[in-house]
Amino acid sequence: MKDKKLVVIQLSGGNDYLNCVIPYNNSNYIDNRPNVRINENEVIPIDSNIGLNPVMQPMKDLYDQNKVAILHGVGYPVPNRSHFRSMDIWHTAEPTKVGTEGWLGNAINQMYPKHDNVVAAVNFGAGLPRALVAHGAPVAAVTDLDSYGFLNHINEENNRLDALSAFKDMYAQAIGTGPVMDYLRQTGLDALKGADILSTVTSEYSSDIEYSMDNSFSKAMKGAAQVLQADIGTRICYTQHGSFDAHTNGIALQEGLLKHVMGGIRDFYDDMKAANKSDDVIMFVFSEFGRRVKDNGNGTDHGSGGVAFVIGDSVKGGQYSEYPSLKYEDLLEGDLRFNLDFRSVYSEILEDWLGVDAIPVVKGAYEKVGFLT
Amino acid sequence: MTTVDYSKDVSLLAHLLRRASFGPTPDEMDYAVEVGYDNILKEFLNPKEADLVPHDMIRRYHVAQSDLRNQGAAYWIYRMLMTKSPLREKMTLFWHRIFATGWAKLIQHRPILNQIDMFRTHGMGKFDDLLIELSKDPSMIMWLDNQDNHGHNINENYGREILELFSMGVGNYTEDDIKETARAFTGWRVVNPEYMSIKMRNNTARPYGYMSWQFEYDDEDHDKGLKTILGQTGNWNGEDAVRIICEQEGTAKYLARHLYHYFVEDELPVPQWPHEPPRNPEAIDLMVQSYFDNDHSIKAVLGTMFTADFFKDIPARYARIKSPAEMVVGALRLAGPIELPSMDLLAAEDACTNMGQALLNPPSVEGWQGGTEWVSTGAYVQRVNFVSKVLSDPDKIGLRNIIDKIKEKASSSNLTHTQLVDFCLDILGPLDVMDSTKSSLNKYISRYPDLSWSDKSGSDSFDEAVVSLIQLIVSSIEYQNA
Q1: If DSSP states are collapsed to H, E and C, what string results for chain B?
Q2: Number of domains making up chain A
Q3: Domain enclosing residue A165, as ranges
Q4: How many Å lie between the alpha carbon of A318 and the closest alpha carbon of chain B?
Q5: What is the pTM assigned to this prediction?
Q6: Subunit contact B356:A126, Cβ cutoff 8 A
Q7: What is the pLDDT of residues B195-254, one digit of tens each?
Q8: Using CB atoms, which residue from A118, A150, A296 is nearest to B385?
């Protein structure tokens, strides 16, 4: 499974499940959403009860080709409605205590126990999500692939090479001066090595696919395509888009962002397909929680239970699990009850796609969902 | 009695300037040595009223700069570069990190810059006053939707975050406290928002900037029923909620831990605080005591902290990783003064963003965690590239000043390689480095065989050597820390 690649798309801020994958003729949906509701005539139906948000046609096209698994009611027991904490739970797969290790960081360490692949995972965007963090796991974080390189303001090549070699000398020697200094030292060295490798990626990329939208998400997805097509050993790409925190202006805010996400997903898929590499990559889309069933007048507050998607040629398209009940008596403090533990989803991705052991990551055995072919 | 020793201890003074300012420039250091630790701290804690050209004068005489005020982060960076009251500016950054508000949701920069101005005014005052100002701050009201928090239908966003993120942290309150606090803040809103947003979109009136939102209290929309907040029951309004919050031990502890994390030593990430004790519980207790002894004065807590041994002692030195803003502003201050705001500062704003701290546009309401989270391989590339580039031009005033000071310090018109390394480390701090770093620097500078400046060509080559060496020093592991 060494050639299998994962692209994680994090919808930050809490993507409203009800208006993303819509139970459009459910009377509880209609009653609870007097203001923040998508009308039945605008919904893109996928069956007689459920449809997609009007901006999600690109995903509908892929769904019709059986490339999209819709995972209903994803969550975890005792939901936490803090963005922070809930995202942390998803990142560390630790719902009951504070985890220190990211689920993908752990996977990277399993794949490369000697920490010798500095571009095993590439994050697109500023900073690093905790999902990718684990002791010793090197992760490259790229804001702009086109200008990625060290000390590139030094024009004279010999001077630059001298400075780079002095940099390396300085960092290589600084051993054993405490955990923080060691972390800085290793990060500096990994950055140097990763920059060398990644600097070759854009020049080798050629594609006929035009990315249709000009936004940070589209740029990140194009970057992921460039990195994955270059075969430099990258197994995981990660990016996030948001904020979906639609306490107000619920519909417009969510649709604007979903439009970006759809464009990026579709163009990335086509790009990988055109490069003949679409069999080896899946996209996993998630958010830290769904939103409250009842709207607040103009938006929605934090909720629990959400929807996730797995997309790609190696995915068995369809709907998995069930849409949680919207009946008042079935809700948990006004929110949807989860019926699919996200650790089941992780277990399948980890074991059946990335080929690593899931139990040390999710701390137990979870029944797999079955969305991979 | 003679002055106590620590007052003139250059390493300690440099430590103070790294924390309470943006890292020493040679001139700042000279001044600190002249007046001593206690006096410089007193100046920092009692900032001058205004420390730069007023906005209206900038608009009148430097019209282009009004546009910069629509690039909020660049404008703020300009203030950080210019300030003569660096601790006040560091505190605005501190509050922005905790009360993290993003302009993207507000569509315009002006109200959020007004929020930063408010931090400048109240950021070292009484914590109660700050929280009330925050609750009335139009950008916060829009950011956390208190605009939609009505007497008949609460929006609990602000009620939640004032407890979870802005005062005491998880574990000190219940879900009911959140709802009750939200009820207390019903009717706290922005004047005529629909009109304001139309006006804003139709704005053609640059350079006068966008409309400024104003706070108003709408008594008719306020829920006047009894509320129980943190065990106290009454007909509470927002001011009462703030009073009750500020009386809590949990609030004092949370504030103290944030200050410790920001000024003394990197703490664990905030989400772990409810589960893990502080690194230095005695330090937190001392600061909590100071908070209650001094009527919730933030300035008093800062004074307690900066004069305590736990701050001055060796283990606290270099025990924090510099934030992107500290990296960027520190380097620009070192490179030399900027006379006027200019659009060049957009590059500084971008640099902060690329290093992981998009000022005025935090990743979420939780702000930034700091510590090792500032450092990833991508951020590392950005840190090293930006700072070394800023310090690559020997004709920049600050660098020229550094070169001249090094020449003055030498007894003849040449230096040995080890002398030059020592002088540079000294003038950039002093910056303490590992022996291995020093030997790498020595090895590197030997690429310049001759370090004399008796003639013009020698002088140019000497300047080049100093500048290359400085670029490498600021790329070191040690320089990443404050």
Answers
A1: CCCCHHHHCHHHHHHHHHHHCCCCCHHHHHHHHHHCHHHHHHHHHCCCCCCCCCHHHHHHHCCHHHHHCCCHHHHHHHHHHHCCCHHHHHHHHHHHHHCCCCHHHHCCCHHHHHHHHHHHHHCCCEHHHHHHHHHHCHHHHHHCCHHHCECCECCCHHHHHHHHCCCCCCCCCCHHHHHHHHHHCCCEEECCHHHHHHHHHCCCCCCCCCCCCCEEECHHHCCCCCEEECCEEECCCHHHHHHHHHCCHHHHHHHHHHHHHHHCCCCCCHHHCCCCCCCCHHHHHHHHHHHHHCCCEHHHHHHHHHHCHHHHCHHHCCCCECCHHHHHHHHHHHHCCCCCCCCCHHHHHHHHHHCCCCCCCCCCCCCCCCHHHHCCHHHHHHHHHHHHHHCCCCCCHHHHHHHHHHHHHCCCCECCHHHHHHHHHHHCCCCCCCHHHHHHHHHHHCCCCCCECCCHHHHHHHHHHHHHHHHHHCCCCHHHEC
A2: 2
A3: 157-198
A4: 33
A5: 0.79
A6: yes
A7: 766 665 554 443 334 566 899 999 999 999 999 999 999 999 999 999 999 999 999 999
A8: A150
